[in-house]
Amino acid sequence: MRVRTSSAGLVLMVSMTAVGCGSGDGRAGAEDRTAPPVAVSASAARNPGSTAPVPGDTPSAAAGKRVTYADLPTPSPAQQAAYLADLNAIDRAIVAGRPTQASLMSNSMGTCLELANHREPGRILTETIFALDNEQAQLTREEGTRIVEAIRRDLCPMY
Fold first, then answer.
1. 122 lies in a domain?
2. Among residues 39, 44, 70, 155, which is most buried (max CB within 10 A)?
3. How many domains would you assign to the chain?
């Protein structure tokens, strides 16, 4: 009898845990950062020649909606060039130490996502340093702060 009760309790606990894993309850976590940005804003969808967001057209966590990668606008080539120039001004090893610029941009858009969802500034700074640090560039908190400022200015000024 005791074995059956323990087994039933274990099955119940496992079932509850499995149901809670994919609940989509809006809690932020590592799953937020797994998919790269693939969509443009609604304004860019209406005007294919432009990826610039229209003020008030961009979702924000302040409006009660959790922002996802799909909500982030795609940075234009000019915005990307300005951002890469800013990174090179901070530390050339940030860009040079990456296998591709695509991985660098993807990680940087993760910071845009954090900014859009109004995460705590200390968390944003720590995650940005972790995401952009590499064997050649050992980033300091000051450099991390400058990177977050460059991301906000160059890639996602709407947040």
1. yes
2. 155
3. 1
Q: Is residue 85 included in any domain, yes or no? A: yes
Q: Which two tokens stand for residue 60?
A: 């924000």
Residues 6+ apart with CB under 8 A from 62: 118
Give pLDDT tens digits for 111-138: 999 999 999 999 999 999 999 988 888 8
Does residue 118 fall inside a structural domain?
yes
What is the distance between the alpha carbons of residues 90 and 118, in angstroms, rounded to a whole number? 25
Q: What range does the domain containing 127 cover?
A: 66-159
d(CA 40, CA 37): 8
Structure-model confidence comparison of residues 19 and 72, the more confident one: 72
Determine if the pTM surpasses 0.70: no
Q: CA dist 95 to 14, 47, 80, 135, 151, Å? A: 44, 32, 12, 11, 14
pLDDT beyond 50 at 19: no
The H-assigned helical ranges of the chain are 2-21, 42-46, 77-90, 92-96, 101-116, 121-132, 141-150
Q: What is the pLDDT of residue 7?
A: 38
107 domain residue, yes or no:
yes
Query: Within 13 A of 22's CA, how many CA atoms are on the CB side?
Result: 3
